[in-house]
Amino acid sequence: MAETPNNRQLAPEALKLFAQGAASIPTPPLTESAPASPTSTFDDRVLFAVPKKGRLHEKCVEMLRGSGLEFSKPNRLDICMVKNMPITLVFLPAADIPRFVGESNVDMGITGQDVILESKMQELTTESLALGFGRCKLQVQVPMSSGIERIEDLAGKKIATSFDSVAREHFGKIDARLGTTTVVEYLSGSVETACALGLAEGIVDLVESGETMRAAGLKPIETIMSSEAVLISSSMSKKPHMLSVVE
């Protein structure tokens, strides 16, 4: 998605409410004699999960700093204390954040709607805010030369994807209707190469600009979902008194 002045400003604006709310929670004092340790205690701080790398990481860090959070991540730790608010940032793989939040290991986090669906954490997490970046589509794609135009034409064949849970559920409904059996193969990456290498007749993969898809000679035949980065909180939070102020 091309960046415009409007969506460059959207991320800081989206968390303005969060920053204002968090600022109203007393920040535990840091003393020279007892400097804060990132792993000491989290009882009086909101644990906030942030993607540690990948397509969402830089935007998240930019947004958090733009919303007024002051922090410096230690080189060898994936945890850091926000200096001016009672928040501890925890840097995790984006795909793991829904589970950490859903199981109340952390209180809040930022991740994509696609990985929330893939991890089946919809019931255990609450989407508090759509953040306006990381927009993409999870699509079923086939080779341009395949002659396949409809999802029904792909049913009963082999599919490669990193989103095997979503793909199995999606094609399971089609198989039940058509009496077919679609095979879903999990790949951890480079999914767009699966058809060219003969591993699968189609794939399910994320599409942002579409450049990678077209370069691989693929075309979309169905969109399973649209996704963007969202702020989520635990539906079973251990600190509802703090989250209610933050949100």
TrEMBL record:
Protein origin, superkingdom: Eukaryota
UniProt keywords, alphabetically:
Amino-acid biosynthesis, Glycosyltransferase, Histidine biosynthesis, Transferase
Gene Ontology terms describing biological process? L-histidine biosynthetic process
EC numbers listed for it are 2.4.2.17
- Pathway per the UniProt entry: Amino-acid biosynthesis; L-histidine biosynthesis; L-histidine from 5-phospho-alpha-D-ribose 1-diphosphate: step 1/9
Record's Gene Ontology CC terms? cytoplasm
Stretches assigned to the ATP phosphoribosyltransferase catalytic domain: 94-239
Q: Which GO terms describe its molecular function?
A: ATP phosphoribosyltransferase activity
Return the broad EC class. transferase
Question: For this protein, what reaction is catalysed?
Answer: 1-(5-phospho-beta-D-ribosyl)-ATP + diphosphate = 5-phospho-alpha-D-ribose 1-diphosphate + ATP
Protein name per Swiss-Prot or TrEMBL? ATP phosphoribosyltransferase
